[in-house]
Design brief:
By secondary structure, the protein is mainly alpha-helical. The chain has one domain. The protein is built from 5 helices and 2 strands, in the order ββααααα. It has a two-stranded antiparallel ribbon.
């Protein structure tokens, strides 16, 4: 069943007719990234520019952009940047483990499927991004041509 989900940010409002689990997935993702979990914390820079209802290609682009920007600033501070994306893929692999564990916990604690399904959607989405990174991000290369 579809529901109208409205997300208000300081700069704009996002609205979408979508499944409840999809809307919850976006909220759960924000809470997890800002929960001070050391693994999820690696995505914290993306929170400021969160894009509710994003397609996997949009998230892939944001994740790669965030990672490359982080490497640029490391270089400016005199640190050694790591431009290869394998570390970003490793981050998403670790996030997948966290999401799996959270799914198990929610399944045990929740009487409704919506919460668990929201986390499963989020986890699957993250795995898609991780696989795309491992495959060399060819999916978004056309954006830089």
């Amino acid at each position: 069943m579809d529901t109208r989900v409205v997300v208000k940010a300081p700069e704009r409002t996002y609205e979408e007719d979508t499944r409840l689990q999809q809307g919850l997935s976006s909220i759960v993702g924000l809470y997890m990234v800002t929960s001070n979990c050391p693994i999820m914390d690696q995505l914290r820079p993306m929170v400021r520019f969160h894009l509710p209802f994003a397609a996997s290609e949009e998230t892939l682009y944001r994740a790669v952009s965030m990672y490359v920007t982080k490497q640029y600033y490391a270089m400016r501070r005199g640190e050694t940047p790591y431009w290869e994306l394998e570390k970003l893929a490793q981050i998403y692999s670790a996030i997948s483990v966290v999401n799996t564990g959270m799914s198990r916990r929610l399944r045990q604690a929740s009487t409704k499927d919506a919460n668990v399904n929201a986390l499963i959607i989020l986890s699957t989405f993250g795995e898609t991004v991780g696989v795309s990174i491992k495959d060399g991000v060819g999916k978004i290369e056309y954006l830089c041509s």
